[in-house]
Amino acid sequence: MSGQDTTKTKIGVLKEKDPIQKEKIKIVDTTEVTYSIGELKTASLTSVKEKDTIIYHATDHPEIAKLDAMWREELYNSHLFDTIYKSVRELEYDPVEYAALPTDTLKARLERLNARTPFNVEYNPSLESVIKSYLKHRRKHLERLMSLSHFYFPLFEKELDNQNIPLEIKYLAIVESALKPRAKSRVGATGLWQFMFGTGKMFGLEVSSYVDERMDPIMATKAACKYLASLYRIFGDWDLALASYNSGPGNVNKAIRRSGGYTNYWNIRNNLPRETAGYLPAFLATMYIFEYAEEHGFRPKKPNLAYFETDTVKVKQMITLDQVSEYIDVKMEELQFLNPSYKLDIIPHIKDEDYVLRLPLDKVGTFVANEKEIYTLAKAELDKREKPLPKFFEANDKIRYRVRSGDYLGKIARRYGVRVSQIKRWNGLRSNNLRVGQRLTIYPRKPVTNVATKKKTTTKTTPKKAVALKNYSVYEVKSGDTLWSISKKFNGVSIDDIKKWNGISGNAIKPGMKLKISKS
Q1: Cα angle: 54, vertex 60, 62; to 5 degrees
Q2: Mean of the per-residue pLDDT values for the chain?
Q3: Which of 281, 293, 243, 246 lies closest to 93 in space, CA to CA?
Q4: Which whole-number Å values give the CA distances from 363 to 154, 338, 405, in the listed order?
Q5: What is the pLDDT of residues 362-399, one digit of tens each?
């Protein structure tokens, strides 16, 4: 029998020979609905109603599931681990007693490490202090990070290798976020690679009411690789590229000037912002400990799940992670771990966007084999919800704020995660005085989403007028392009130039859009 076969059967709670014990007896509504799918007729999604609760049980095609199991067995020896995070940024440089690591032994190991990496890993007392402090006081945290690193490092190494970036850069994500995809700093930097909102936009990471791509491990890693590669092209030195990743190229250039023109990180370190001054020592200390983990007796636990034991399914309609958890029996915490970029634990379905659900490999077949029924159940459940789901809105990188009674600059600055001095600079303010009704331009560190207007009639804003060009070429926007990446393709062209020539007010561009680029 082909197609969909729906049958109703009775379920017995106890087997005939089971000893009858009162505590084992359940009162069950004995309706089971079975859906057979495809030619194999062995995949099924069944539901059992116990009192007022419906319990779902999904099974995959056994033959295909066996192939998945064989594939998983091939990948299992890749030494991937799992579990917790802890920040590694707090640094002190006082001498630390740690008899298990004599200075001479450390010097010899750093020399070997220096010979095989493009970083300057030469011994100095400050680095020794950080390494010994980590080994003495943060051993438990480091071992947990080592477990978690084995989930993410293969992903990082693949992208780093694709873009010809040193594989040791993978340790930067530990210093940045302690490998927590949803990490958010006090100033709004977000994700494994801690992108600020504007920088993330510049490298193609979108933020909306549902999705923050800075939290997506793959997309954020690709963006971080592009950013780091651009910084290396500027400085020609990976130590300085890392310093500028933390504090910006401008601060590194100031430090170089103040040091008298030195371009070695250790010579300009005292002229860098305090956090950046400790940034490279934290990175190098982490690299050393991970590279010599066995010598220091670290024994990370095996992971419950490896990156290569997961796969993605493109969603065909809106679905929530709790629905997926219920229908195919995956723990909610596991789904959140695998799908960190969905801010509300909801996967939207938007035209021209490819949003995917990442699942453990042994659940992918189960989901695909039963997806028609899963989507039907999901839609029916969402339609019944008393409170509608929020609408999808793109987040803005610039807002116009109207001053209200009781507002002052400090209050507005805290609301949007910016400094008072920045608001004054953006708006040409010479004092802290504000007037009710005054309009302020703000570039929030905390992304703000567009909200639906309450009025039915709105005044249309006049599009920004493009500057007329006599001598220009036309560039067609490709997938993955940003205004920043396009500006780098043309000598002497800035992002502001492109926006001015084409009447663009924000940073949003789409594949296929044609942009005028001045030849003069």
Answers
A1: 140
A2: 77
A3: 281
A4: 21, 13, 55
A5: 899 999 999 999 999 989 888 876 556 666 656 666 67
